[in-house]
Structure formats: C-alpha cells, structure tokens
Amino acid sequence: MNSEALWLFKQLNLHLEQEGRFQPREKGLSLIECAAENENTLCPRLRNVKVEDLWSLTNFFGFATETFVLAVNILDRFLALMKVKPKHLSCIGVCCFQLAARVVEEECIIPSAHEIIRISQCKCTVSDLKRMEKIISEKLHFEFKATTALTFLHLYHAIVLCHTSDRKEVLNLDKLEAQLKACNCRLVFSKAKPSVLALCLLTLEVQTLKSVEMFEILLRVQKHSKISDSDLLYWRELVSKCLADYSSPECCKPDHKKLVWIVSRRTAQNLQNSYYSVPELPTIPEGGCFNESESEDSCEDMSSGEESLSSSPPSDLEGAFFFDLKPKAKWQTLNSES
C-alpha cells in the first residue's frame, strides 16, 4: 500500500469515528416522518421542499456541492432537536444555508444576508436571521463543519482510483455528487449512516460499469468500514428507487422552480411601457477593437426574471445523471456480484 493509500485510509478511520457525532437524532427524524401536515406541524414534504430550495440557492450562487450537503446536515440536525412550526422553516433554511456557506466558501463570494433573503424570497428580516443563527448555533454547540456522506463519497472515490487501473473518467464524481443531492432531498436518507449512503451510491455506479476490479476494492472498503451486507442492501434498494423516481419526468426537480420577481405597480407600468421601446445601438467602428469589458458592463442581464434559481450550468449537467439508471427488482450482495 503506497503513501497516498495509507493517508486515505487514515482519513477514513478518522471520519468513521466522527460520523455518529454529526448525524441528526433518529428519534427526532422519526417524529417528523410520522407528523401530519398542518400549520402547526413540520411534515416530511415541507422539509423536502425546503431542501430543494437550498439546492436551488446553491446552484444560483454557484456554490460547491459541499455547501448544499452541509446546509442540509445543519438543517436536519436542528430539526431533529427542536419542534419547529412550518412558518419558521423558511428562515431556518436560509440561516442554515448561510452558516454552511461560511464554512465552505470564500468569504469574498458569500452574498450579504439581505441579498440571500431577497433571492430566496424568505419572508424574514436580517434581524430575524441573526436571532435564528444564535438559536441554531447554541443548539448545535457551534459545530457546523461536519462529516457527511459527501466526505465519504470523496474518500471512497479516491481510494478506488488509487487502487484501480480504470481512470477517473469512468467513475464520474460529478454524477455521484448529483445523485447524492437527489437523496438529500428525501428525509429518510438523513437516517442512514453517511458512510453507508456513500457506499450505496458507489456500488450502484460500479454495478452499472460492470467493473470486477472496482467491486473487489469496494468489498475491502466495506469490510474496513464495518458495514454489514444487510445494511448495505437495505439502503441501496432505497437509493436505487429514489434515483429511479428522480429520473422520471413526473418528478418535480429543484431546477424547474421559477424565480419570480415581485415589483410594485409603478415599476410594472414602467416595464410595460419600455417593453416596446427599441434602444438606439451605438455605431461599431470599422477599424476599432472590440472591448469585451465595455460590452458586458453596458448590457444588463435580465434572464433571472425568467430562469430558475438553479439555471447555472451545473444543474444542466446534473439532470443527465439520472436518466440512464434502471432499477433492479432484486439486489444481490457485493460478494455474489463480484
């Protein structure tokens, strides 16, 4: 085993020890699962819708997958501790998104609280966000940087590449991340161990690739991580069904949601009046050079009024990661497949 592999397994051991510490309380998640939908009770559907909103915000601001996964982890850990009314969920979700962005993203690209409220259309004030941040921080003991399924997905992916002759072009990490985000939109997967959920996604992908070499590596990883066949099969079947459902055209995905700008009546009238006006274009000099900076600065981007929150390129790529997945009627253990 080379030095890179030793370091990866050392990191894996570290995160295996920590994963239970950052998992939402199963009892709290079960209470949400059993809750009826009404104005005083948080039900699974409302939680899932809020997570889809976080996915849309992540794509809109061009943030990393880690920001989204961490925001969901913070959200679920808090919801599993506190009895939350649906009317407060919007403020809580935006606050969790902001906390995750501070952990993952560069400070210079994180938008202001006012900007996040405006884009998310959260019906709260900056003061509300600050108060909510204080509550969440105290309940979670200011522990925001967590071990998540994405942590294990990256580690397992790196371990497989370190031991196989097949290169990374075959085992697509972007595809695996997109599938993980789809699972995060279902409350049930917050009850799974992050290490198990990550291994489920990898084994399903390796099964699609029909790589015996990768299967043997994942068998060693499964044994090292002390994941039983029964746990792996149980969660893998749920993951497979989730991805199959998500690939169906009937499924409403986050990037189908429209961003609607709310304007005053006066502004709307001005927009209507200017709709038919044709601006006078400047003459293009024949011998001059095209100045890209001037062109970009003088042209206002109005596409956000019609496009979705997640209209950035990553969401387009993610959409293609679910359509070639065919659910199986029965899953076998890794031992029998390899």
UniProtKB/TrEMBL annotation:
Comp. bias (Low complexity): 305-318
UniProt main location, coarse: cytoplasm
Entry keyword Cell division: yes
Keyword Translocase found: no
Keyword annotations: Cell cycle, Cell division, Cyclin, Cytoplasm, Mitosis
Compartments it resides in: Cytoplasm
Gene Ontology biological process terms from the UniProt entry: cell division
InterPro entries from the UniProt entry: Cyclin, Cyclin-like_dom, Cyclin-like_sf, Cyclin_N
Compositional bias (Acidic residues): 293-304
Pfam families reported for this sequence: Cyclin_N
Domain Cyclin-like: 52-138
Positions of region (Disordered): 292-318
Example of a GO cellular component annotation carried by this entry: cytoplasm
Family: Belongs to the cyclin family. Cyclin G subfamily.
Purpose of the protein: May play a role in growth regulation and in negative regulation of cell cycle progression.
Listed name of the protein: Cyclin-G2
Protein source organism: Nothoprocta pentlandii
Gene: Ccng2
